[in-house]
Design a protein that fits this description.
By secondary structure, the protein is α+β, with helices and mostly antiparallel strands. It folds into 2 domains: about 100 residues; about 70 residues, no CATH class. The strands form 2 sheets. Strands 1-6-3-4 form a 4-stranded antiparallel β-sheet, with no helix packed on it. The protein has a 3-stranded antiparallel β-sheet with strand order 5-2-7, with no helix packed on it. It is about 50% helix and about 20% strand. The chain is rod-shaped and about 165 Å long. Strand 3 and strand 4 form a beta hairpin.
């Protein structure tokens, strides 16, 4: 096979627009290109400014909402604090009342204890011998005899209980005796004797 040689195609020159010359087209392109570039940059800048403004507005709205929420929380905490302070004052008042009542109870308890100690110190047990001024106080004593065999006696001290001043046997009910200095006292089956005067 043989190769055919194809002649180069003739080049077609650029056809200028109607009524325009090639130099005017280039100068127009040169004028429009900077204007278009400036317009594109301006539009991009405006879009960026709008986006930043929208973003900032959105952030500002979020921050305002968060601030309002925190302010409501602070107001609520302030209200709770006021309530707690009122309660604290109430507790302080109640503690003062409790302290006062405790002091009063301590006084009553001390008085009761003193009375109990006095009763214990002045109560004579049945079956023992007591000497006025040594193991018992002078005064009037009472017993509630419930049996028919109660015996008691008052003797002169130092006589080995043989010098009887007064005695009784078999009385029932409330019995009262008065014992003075220099005397001894003893009882059998009468119960405890309590000082009444």
């Amino acid at each position: 096979m043989s190769e055919e040689v194809v002649p180069d195609a003739p080049q077609v020159p650029d056809v200028p627009e109607r009524g325009a010359t090639p130099s005017r087209k280039k100068s127009r392109n040169r004028l429009f290109l900077p204007l278009i570039t400036t317009g594109v940059i301006t539009v991009v800048a405006l879009v960026a400014v709008v986006l930043v403004s929208v973003t900032r507005a959105s952030e500002t709205a979020e921050l305002r909402a968060a601030l309002e929420s925190e302010q409501e929380r602070v107001d609520g905490l302030g209200s709770q604090l006021a309530t707690y302070k009122d309660r604290e004052l109430d507790v302080i008042e109640r503690e003062g009342a409790v302290d006062s009542q405790e002091a009063e109870l301590d006084q009553r308890e001390a008085a009761i204890s003193a009375t109990e100690e006095h009763i214990a110190a002045t109560t004579l047990k049945d079956g023992y011998v007591y000497t006025v001024g040594s193991t018992m106080e002078a005064g009037t004593y009472q017993a509630n005899a419930t049996g028919g065999t109660c015996y008691w006696k008052i003797t002169v001290s130092g006589t080995n209980y043989s010098d009887i001043v007064e005695n009784d046997l078999g009385k029932n009910g409330v019995i009262a005796v008065a014992v003075g200095p220099g005397q001894d006292f003893q009882s059998e089956r009468c119960g405890d004797w309590t000082k009444v005067g």
